[in-house]
Write a structure and sequence with these properties.
about 350 residues; alpha/beta; Isopropylmalate Dehydrogenase; 2 domains; ten-stranded mixed beta sheet; two-stranded antiparallel sheet; globular
Length: about 350
């Protein structure tokens, strides 16, 4: 039976994770998935209970699971703890421990919901972009790094194998979509960008059926706002991917709509892109869509159950049309929206 390690985390993390689990249980009832769940401490709550954000009990539980579902971590309460034990450091350690080098972040504007986007409907219409972010290299992990009273320094570094493997993930994904890859760098001023572009070009030779273009990151930021529908798969490094995927996330209308999958060498990780939103934690108004769609990605990429994933995605789309959460102009609270999704899944079963 597939084992899912739940890391609800902090802030609204437990609320949206609970919603995602409720939907997974409903999908289990329809498709016979046989899911098992076990919850582990992670992030700020783990610091409070264990003195570190990624304790040994969680490390072991994640390695023994078939997939990890994370809610969100962090908050002002832990902003002043030493950097080595901050919640975000635990997330970096989790990614590194599982070799999660490929972060997939889809941003799709659903037909009929263009009005939810901050863009004009004619610009938002047809947006369906997959941002693939390299997750274990680049400036977040490069050495040397440090800080003194007079200065601070970080190193942007990529090896050829790191760029090759993320490029292959992008080209393979494009083969299952519209056959287009846009690689983003800053090759005009950074040697690492020039190296990135050269290596992606070399990998592209193995994928003649996929179209490839290159964009500088500043130009790409502009294009994602002015003509986002023309992009299919976007692949880029760690820091650029962090920024561009957050930008892309608002195209459908809210950061609360964007799921993600982190794939690599060991247990894959699935999480909403949004943060812990401590200002609304416990109020019952958090948008669980991103967490629910992350659970759908879990079914596709970790358990090879795409039919169940598609059913969840269709149920979410129906719920969004019926009555979205307050951040999207609706009135459905977290639990009510979750019930709408579960009800739509039940209808699918009847159908």
């Amino acid at each position: 039976m597939p084992k899912i390690a739940l890391l609800p985390g902090d802030g609204i993390g437990p609320e949206v994770t609970h919603a995602a689990v409720e939907v997974l249980k409903a999908a289990d009832g329809v498709f016979g998935l046989g899911l098992e769940f076990e919850t582990f401490p992670f992030g700020g709550n783990a610091i409070d209970a264990h003195g570190e954000p990624f304790p040994e009990i969680t490390r072991k539980g994640c390695l023994e699971a078939d997939a990890i579902l994370l809610g969100a971590i962090g908050g002002p309460k832990w902003d002043n703890v030493p950097r080595p034990i901050r919640p975000e450091t635990g997330l970096l350690a989790l990614r590194k421990a599982h070799g999660l080098y490929a972060n997939l972040r889809p941003a799709k504007v659903l037909p009929g919901l263009e009005h939810l986007s901050p863009l004009k409907p004619e610009i938002a219409r047809g947006v369906d972009v997959l941002v693939i972010r390299e997750l274990t290299g680049g400036i977040y992990f490069g050495e040397p790094r440090g800080m003194s009273e007079a200065e601070a320094w970080n190193t942007e570094r990529y090896s050829k194998p790191e760029v090759e493997r993320i490029a292959r993930v992008a080209f393979e994904a494009a083969r299952k979509r519209r056959g287009q890859v846009c690689s983003v760098d800053k090759a005009n001023v950074l040697e690492v960008g020039e190296f990135w572009r050269k290596t992606v070009d070399e990998v592209h030779q193995d994928y003649p059926d996929v179209a490839l273009e290159h964009q500088y990151v500043d130009a790409m930021a502009m294009h994602l706002v002015t003509r986002p529908s023309r992009f299919d798969v976007v692949v880029t490094g760690n820091i650029f991917g962090d920024i561009l995927s957050d930008l892309a996330s608002v195209l459908p209308g809210s950061l609360g709509l964007l799921p993600s999958a982190s794939l690599g060498e060991k247990t894959p990780l699935f999480e909403p892109v949004h943060g812990s939103a401590p200002d609304i934690a416990g109020k019952g108004i958090a948008n669980p869509t991103a967490a629910i769609l992350s659970a759908a990605m879990l079914l596709t990429y970790a358990l090879n159950r795409p039919e169940a994933a598609r059913a969840i995605e269709a149920a979410v789309a129906q719920a969004l049309r019926q009555n979205p959460t307050p951040d999207l102009g609706g009135t459905a609270r977290t639990e009510a929206f979750t019930r709408q999704v579960v009800a739509a899944l039940a209808q699918a079963r009847v159908g």
